[in-house]
Automatic annotation (TrEMBL):
SUPFAM superfamilies in the cross-refs: PhoU-like
Protein name: Phosphate uptake regulator, PhoU
Residue ranges constituting the PhoU domain according to the UniProt record: 21-106, 125-209
One Pfam family this sequence matches: PhoU
Gene3D superfamilies: Phosphate transport system protein phou homolog 2, domain 2 (1.20.58.220)
Superkingdom of origin organism: Bacteria
InterPro entries from the UniProt entry: PhoU (IPR028366), PhoU-like_sf (IPR038078), PhoU_dom (IPR026022)
Region (Disordered): 229-260
Swiss-Prot/TrEMBL GO biological process terms: intracellular phosphate ion homeostasis; negative regulation of phosphate metabolic process
NCBIfam families on file: phoU_full
Entry similarity comment: Belongs to the PhoU family.
Ranges of Low complexity composition bias in the record: 229-253
Organism: Desulfovibrio legallii
């Protein structure tokens, strides 16, 4: 009996390790996509797109590992919740990787777009989305159910940031003096949508962690979120919308070309 328990725990530990490896790979792709966007670097963006195949392979590997674990060991209670959550979490990780690729693709497509310098207006939101992802991974790695619960409030904030950026774009498009052209506006909107998805799927990961730890699903039971965008982020987006791209870019050190 003890031997069976040890075998199960070994399989669970391996599954957890592979999830963390995939999370690290997705984190690298996300960071590199941000650097490509900030530095207008098509080579870095191309590398992000090429890395997606490895992330997809990890998803398939983890799926197979989790299904075999269910079939061979029939886990119960917290162990069962972990395996079920792993099957869900791997989908969120893969989709976040896909959105990093989407950001990289937009960075490449914008190379010949006039007025590309206004793109820093999305960098503050990129930083917040990336912070949410890193927090979600930390919550999973350290099994922080309390912090996972706190992350739920970020769902409304992500949507508010997206709406704020798009409203600013619409206002600038209606003002001929702004210099913003429709092609660039389209790229910015697509990037903003990807950042919202990254942010919200990071919150999904936190929900999975809470379910593993507490046995309670938050999937359709989120608290009402009336939180407004924090003043620093709102100020950065306002500055960018006014055309102060350089100031906004300085507020996003994590995607700076020289950041480690």
């Amino acid at each position: 009996m003890q031997q069976e328990v040890n075998y199960l725990q070994q399989l669970l530990a391996t599954l957890r390790t592979r999830l963390l490896v995939m999370a690290a790979s997705v984190g690298i792709a996300l960071e590199e996509a941000g650097k490509a966007l900030a530095a207008n670097d098509p080579g870095r963006a191309t590398a992000v797109m090429e890395s997606d195949a490895a992330i997809d392979a990890l998803e398939n590997e983890i799926d197979e590992m989790a299904l075999q674990l269910l079939a061979r060991t029939q886990p119960v209670a917290g162990d069962l919740r972990f395996v079920v959550s792993a099957l869900r979490m791997v989908v969120d990780l893969e989709r976040i990787g896909d959105e990093a690729v989407s950001v990289a693709e937009q960075a490449v497509l914008m190379q010949d777009t006039p007025g590309c310098a206004v793109i820093p207006q999305v960098l503050p939101m990129f930083q917040r989305a990336r912070d949410a992802y890193e927090q979600a991974v930390r919550v999973f790695r350290e099994n922080r159910a309390d912090e996972a619960l706190q992350m739920i409030h970020g769902d409304g904030e992500a949507l508010q940031c997206e709406v704020r950026i798009i409203q600013g774009i619409m206002e600038r498009l209606s003002d001929p003096a702004s210099g913003l052209k429709p092609p660039l506006a389209m790229h910015i909107i697509l990037i903003t949508r990807s950042l919202t998805r990254i942010w919200r799927r990071s919150i999904n990961i936190a929900e999975h962690v809470y379910f593993i730890s507490q046995g309670e699903s938050l999937k359709h039971n989120k608290l009402d979120d009336k939180t407004t965008a924090p003043a620093p982020l709102a100020a950065e987006m306002d500055a960018a919308a006014a055309g102060d791209g350089a100031a906004a870019a300085q507020k996003a050190p994590a995607v700076d070309e020289d950041a480690e």
